[in-house]
Design goal:
The complex is a heterodimer of chains A (325) and B (289). Chain A is globular. In chain A, 76% of the residues lie in helices and 1% in strands. In chain A, helix 2 packs parallel to helix 7 and helix 2 crosses helix 12. In chain A, 48% of the residues are buried. Chain A has a two-stranded antiparallel ribbon. Chain A has 325 residues and is an all-alpha fold. By secondary structure, chain B is mainly α. Helix content of chain B is 74%, strand content 2%. Chain B has a two-stranded antiparallel ribbon with strand order 1-2. Chain B starts with a helix and ends in a 12-residue tail after the last helix. Classes of the chains: A mainly alpha (325), B mainly alpha (289). At the A-B interface, helix 4, helix 5, helix 12 and helix 14 of A face helix 4, helix 9 and helix 11 of B.
C-alpha cells in the first residue's frame, strides 16, 4: 500500500505544478478563460462524484446546491456587504445544510436508482420555481448581477483572468486533498455502492454515510456555485438550477471516470475545450451543438467504456509502467 | 373565489387532467409495465409536436387528421431508440439506462435546436369554444381531454384483451417464464417501447394546437409524466388516470389562487412526499424494484 501511495504522490505533484505554472505563459484572455472553465468543471464534477461516483447515488439535481451557493454569495455580498471570500465558505455550508433537507428523507426511506434521481430532479425544479416566483427577493427569471467591488482577494474581484484561475485551481487542490484524506470513509462508500444490503448487514450505517457523502459533495458544489457568480458576475435561475448544469457535472464525471480521483479532471480536460470550441465556431449558426456532441459521447462511453476514459489510462499504466519497473 | 370562478377552475382542472393523461400514458407503458427507464419521454413528445407542426405547416394537414401519421413516425423512432440504444444495455446496471436516456435528452433537445432553432412555433386550428352559460370550454383542450381518455382506454383494452397485450403483460411479469412459453421477449420489448413512443406521438399532436413547441418543451412534460405515473402507481392505468386529474386539479387551483410557479412547487412536493411515504403510488400494488 505504501509504494502505491508514493506512486501516487509523484503524478499529483507534477500535475499540481503544471496546473499552477500555466498562467506564467502569457496566454490570450480567452484561452485563460477556457483553462478556468476546465478546472471549474473538473472541480464541480469531482465534488459531484463523491456522492454520484464513490457512493453510487446518482444525483441528477446537484444544480440545487450549485445555485444555492451562487445566490447565497450574492445575497451576503449585496445585502450585508460581507466579503465574498468568506461568503464562499458560508455558501458551501448553506448548500450542505440544504442537502440534508432532501437527502435525509431520501436515504432514510431508502430511495434508490431512478427514484433517487427523480427526487433530486424534482427538488431542483422546486428551487428553480421558488426563485422565479420570489422575484422581489431573488430578481426572478431575469437573474442577478454582482456589484463592482474593489479589486482583491477578499472581494474575489479581479480584472485579469490569472487570479481567477489561481482561485479555482486552489479550490480544486483543496478538494482533492480532502478526498485523499477520506481513507476508510471512501471504502465504506465503495461498499455501499457495490451492495447496500450487504454493507448494512456488516454494520455500516448506510444512511449516515450516504448523508455524509451528500453533505461533503454539496458543500463543495455550493462553493463552486459561489465561485461561478464571482467569476461570471451574473446568474439566473435557469442556469443556477438547470438540468443542463446538473447533467454537465454528471457527464464530465462519467466520461472521465467517476470512480477515480482523476476521472473528472480527465473528463473536463477533454470535454470542456471541445464544448467551448464548438460553441465558438458553430455557436452562431448551430446553437447547442456542443451539448449534442456531449450527449452522443456520453451514450458511447456508457455503452463501451462504462468506467470512463480513466480506465484506458489505468490499463496502459499497469501494463507498461508498473510491470516494466 | 365565487361559484362561477370555482366551476370554471374545476372545468380547467378536468381538461388539464385529461391532457396529462395523454402525456403520461406512454411512459406508464414503457416504465410502469416494462420497467425500462426512459428519461427522454418528454423529448419524444417534443418530437411528436414538431412532426405535427411540420405536417400542418408544409402539407396543410389538420393536426387531428395527422395523428396516425405522427403516431407511426414516433413508433419508428421508438423502435430505433430501443434497438440501437436501449437493447444493448438492458442487462447492464439500471443506472446505465437512466444515463443513456438522460444523454438522449441532450441529443434530442439540441438536435431540435440545430434543425429548427429556439423559436416557439404553433399552429392555429379552428375548433369552436363551447360556452355553457358563463363557462368556457376551449375546443382544443376538450379535444385533448377526449383524446386522452380514448387513448388510455384503448391501451387498457389492448393490454387486457388482445394477444399482443397478453404477451406484453407476460413479459412484464416474468421475462424468463415468458420466453419459456415461447414468447419472443426481445421483440415484445422493442414493440412495447415503440408503442410507448407512438403514444407520445398522439400526445404531441393533441398538444400542438394548445401549446407552442420549442426544443426545450419536453422537460416540463417529461417530469409531469413521471410524477403522474409514480403518483398513480406504476403500471396502473386507472391510477395514472386518477393521478393525472389530481395533478390537474392542483395546478388549476393553486395556479388560480397563487401562481403557476407555486402550483408546480406543490405538485413536485406531493411527488417527493409520495416517493417517501408510499413509493408504490396511490394505487400501485407491486413492490418497488
Amino acid at each position: 500500500m505504501k509504494s502505491l501511495k508514493l506512486n501516487r504522490i509523484i503524478p499529483i505533484t507534477l500535475i499540481l505544478l503544471i496546473g499552477y505554472l500555466i498562467p506564467i505563459i502569457p496566454l490570450p484572455p480567452y484561452i485563460m478563460h477556457v483553462f478556468i472553465l476546465v478546472v471549474m468543471w473538473a472541480y464541480l464534477s469531482t465534488a459531484w462524484s463523491i456522492l454520484g461516483g464513490a457512493a453510487g447515488q446518482l444525483s441528477l439535481g446537484h444544480a440545487a446546491f450549485f445555485g444555492t451557493g451562487a445566490y447565497t454569495t450574492y445575497f451576503l455580498t449585496v445585502w450585508f456587504g460581507l466579503p465574498p471570500l468568506m461568503n464562499l465558505l458560508v455558501s458551501g455550508l448553506t448548500a450542505s445544510l440544504l442537502s440534508v433537507v432532501i437527502g435525509y428523507p431520501c436515504f432514510r426511506y431508502g430511495l434508490r436508482g431512478v427514484y433517487f434521481a427523480l427526487a433530486t430532479i424534482a427538488f431542483t425544479e422546486i428551487m428553480k420555481d421558488l426563485f422565479i416566483y420570489l422575484r422581489e427577493l431573488t430578481g426572478g427569471s431575469l437573474g442577478v448581477w454582482m456589484p463592482v467591488l474593489p479589486e482583491g482577494i477578499t472581494t474575489l474581484y479581479f480584472l485579469g483572468k490569472e487570479a481567477y484561475y489561481y482561485v479555482i485551481t486552489t479550490l480544486y487542490v483543496v478538494l482533492m486533498i480532502i478526498i485523499n484524506l477520506m481513507g476508510r470513509f471512501r471504502e465504506y462508500l465503495t461498499a455501499i455502492r457495490e451492495d447496500e444490503d450487504v454493507s448494512a448487514s456488516i454494520g455500516i450505517n448506510v444512511t449516515r454515510y450516504k448523508l455524509l457523502a451528500l453533505m461533503i459533495s454539496s458543500f463543495f458544489v455550493g462553493v463552486g456555485g459561489a465561485y461561478y457568480i464571482c467569476y461570471f458576475r451574473y446568474i439566473n435561475p435557469y442556469v443556477a438550477f438547470g438540468l443542463d448544469t446538473s447533467l454537465q457535472m454528471v457527464l464530465i464525471g462519467i466520461f472521465g471516470g467517476m470512480y477515480s480521483f482523476w476521472g473528472p479532471l480527465i473528463g473536463s480536460v477533454i470535454l470542456t475545450p471541445i464544448g467551448e470550441y464548438l460553441r465558438i465556431t458553430l455557436g452562431g449558426t448551430y446553437v447547442g451543438s456542443h451539448l449534442l456532441i456531449y450527449g452522443l459521447l456520453l451514450i458511447l462511453i456508457i455503452r463501451f467504456l462504462p468506467k470512463g476514459i480513466y480506465s484506458i489510462l489505468e490499463s496502459i499504466y499497469s501494463k507498461y509502467l508498473v510491470r516494466g519497473g | 373565489m365565487d361559484v362561477q370562478t370555482f366551476t370554471q377552475v374545476c372545468v380547467n382542472a378536468l381538461l388539464l387532467g385529461g391532457m396529462y393523461a395523454v402525456i403520461s400514458v406512454g411512459l406508464n407503458l414503457i416504465f410502469g409495465v416494462l420497467k425500462i427507464i426512459n428519461f427522454a419521454h418528454g423529448e419524444l413528445i417534443m418530437l411528436g409536436m414538431y412532426s405535427a407542426y411540420w405536417l400542418t405547416t408544409l402539407y396543410n394537414l389538420n393536426p387531428y387528421i395527422s395523428i396516425p401519421i405522427v403516431a407511426m413516425l414516433l413508433f419508428l423512432v421508438g423502435v430505433a431508440i430501443e434497438r440501437v440504444l436501449i437493447k444493448p444495455i438492458l442487462k447492464a446496471p439500471e443506472v446505465n439506462q437512466l444515463l443513456t436516456t438522460a444523454a438522449l435528452i441532450l441529443v434530442l433537445q439540441n438536435l431540435a435546436l440545430i434543425l429548427w432553432r429556439a423559436d416557439y412555433r404553433g399552429v392555429s386550428v379552428y375548433v369552436p369554444t363551447i360556452t355553457l352559460g358563463s363557462l368556457y370550454i376551449p375546443g382544443t383542450r376538450l379535444a385533448a381531454f377526449v383524446g386522452g381518455l380514448i387513448t388510455s382506454l384503448t391501451l387498457y383494452y389492448v393490454l387486457m384483451k388482445t394477444d399482443v397485450g397478453r404477451r406484453i403483460r407476460a413479459v412484464a411479469q416474468d421475462p424468463e417464464i415468458a420466453s419459456v412459453l415461447g414468447i419472443n421477449v426481445s421483440v415484445i420489448q422493442t414493440l412495447t417501447f415503440g408503442l410507448g413512443a407512438l403514444l407520445t406521438g398522439i400526445a404531441g399532436t393533441l398538444l400542438i394546437p394548445i401549446y407552442m413547441v420549442n426544443p426545450m418543451v419536453g422537460g416540463t412534460f417529461g417530469l409531469i409524466a413521471w410524477i403522474i405515473i409514480v403518483l398513480g402507481g406504476l403500471g396502473s392505468f386507472v391510477g395514472a388516470l386518477i393521478g393525472s386529474f389530481i395533478i390537474g386539479f392542483i395546478e388549476a387551483f393553486v395556479g388560480a389562487l397563487i401562481s403557476l410557479e407555486i402550483a408546480r412547487v406543490v405538485a413536485f412536493m406531493i411527488f417527493i412526499a409520495i416517493l417517501f411515504i408510499k413509493p408504490t403510488g396511490l394505487f400501485g400494488e407491486k413492490a418497488r424494484v
